[in-house]
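Worked example 2:
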Amino acid sequence: MWSDNETSEDLLGFKVHADLLVDVIKDDALLPITIGVFGDWGSGKSSILKIINDELSGDDDELKDGTLVLYFNGWVFEGYDDAKSALLETIVERFAKHKTLGNKVKDSTVKLSKSVNWMRVAKLGLKNIVIPGATALLTGGTSLVPHLIGKFADFKPADLAAKLSGEDSGKFLEGIMKDVPEETMLVREFRDDFDEMIRKSEIKKLLVIIDDLDRCSPDRIIENLEAIKLFLNVEKTAFIIGADPRIVRHAIEFRYKTDSIQRADDRETRNRRIVSDYLEKLIQLPYNLPRLSDSEVETYMTLLFCKISLEGSYSSVLEKFSKQREENRYGTFGFGDIDDLITSKEREKLNNSISLIASLSSIITAGLNGNPRQVKRFLNTFMLRSRLVKVAKISDFKFDVLAKLMVLEYSASSLFRQLHQWQATQSGEPKEISELEQLVEDKDIASIVSNYKDWSVPEVVQWIAASPKLTGIDLRDYYWISRDQLSSSISGSSLVPTFLRILARSLLDHGSGTILKDIADNKVKTVLTATERETLFSLIEKEIVKSPENTTYHKVFIQFIESEVIGAIDAYERLLIKIDHDKVPFSLGSLYKLAERKNAEIARIYKLFKGTSGIYKAIHRKK
């Protein structure tokens, strides 16, 4: 099994990306600069940031080439009352506690800490700062904002208690808040004091790396970005942000959403402009990570299996891989390249992996979108199920067949379940998969579209064509091994990108029909890949299965159907078969009829409802 933690160990050949960004940071003429390392969830952003951190950081508190590197995980501040202030405070504290810089910048760090505390007061105000601060003083506790407690120092505890509980407590607190500096003044003072601290420290440059920003909620993402904006144009500074750009864009849209009274097309145009302007001003150098190619996935899988199978030879394998990448970055680094480096015992241990990697790298690349984290989690699940095969003592088991089915399980979970239904009624050997394989071999795509429409998607056709073939294979054992996932599939659990989880929550909590339509038309329909749409359907389906009486959840699929999102009507049909129709609100009947005016296909679902249910009567009620 493989750990899912970020690492500076380069199994992806991504050091070339890290080296490029290090070269940019080392160029004093390009500072100050903010770099965005952008890529999908699990694309390798964190590994690149770790490599950069290791390359530019000194040992302990020592400065390497005069560069101070601060590495932060943005998710750490998710639970803070004000992530912006928390990030600023952490940066200042790093200077204050540095063994060689602390004394040089002591005065500056004191002033900066005070500014950060006042920023928190200005943001959270009376309810969250002033009153708890006063209470802390009365009870002997420690305040969140020490400088604010100084405002109460002239009062005896009994007098302070009287003022807080008396009739004039509001005026008293307002008087306290009058002394809070204006935000613009705080920002200006902070920037000036920070610039002064950099000069006093005599460091050549400051590099701040912020990782995992895309795991945060939209509010926390914006607060972190607002903190970074305070440092823009401060000399000798460089910021690197690692994030999925789709999540960042969503957070900006969420924060600066426009008035729903506007026309939808005007609102969308303005939203795009706001997001683009915000990112362009904040990120001077966006760097987008490419998805892995077939050869890169095969190389990555080879190195992963080497990592868990080899002992003394592993370091030699990595060294040769690194050298080969410099000489030929387009070729595959496979087991043939390491044959002279490993022992006969290690070679025997790797034998089972060789054919598996060679036969499945192309469909894994397509099915998992060339995503390193998904590849690793896929292989972890595969290894776990492989162990179950051995524990259950299943004979004549083909592990490449299991791997192929698992690719379908993730990339098209509804088809995985359909194939399960076919084989369950035909002693494990469904005629449909044999027909599909023959049609693909004959390149008769028209017949696939006509007879197996859902299987005609190019990615699925590629999956059907890939080895091993399933014709003549008894699939019962393979589905028995995967039975834990038949209700939810991998796509509904460990492999779901954060972006899709956030998007699903935005849809389920949409708040208004205008917002729902906007997301359906401009994200689900046009931005997501077929695999991502399928995963999104599964996430929403789970919520409706748990709460079939929730009209708001049903509206999501109804809007998808209105917007003609590919696969939405099929997914909704499968969903309705699973739930208790007596719990489906009869008020949906009128919503179905309204949707039918825009997309007549929704009428397909009417026949699914049983005649005794309220929803059936609502649909068929005569006007």
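The first helix runs from residue 15 to 26. The CA atoms of residues 573 and 604 lie 8 Å apart.
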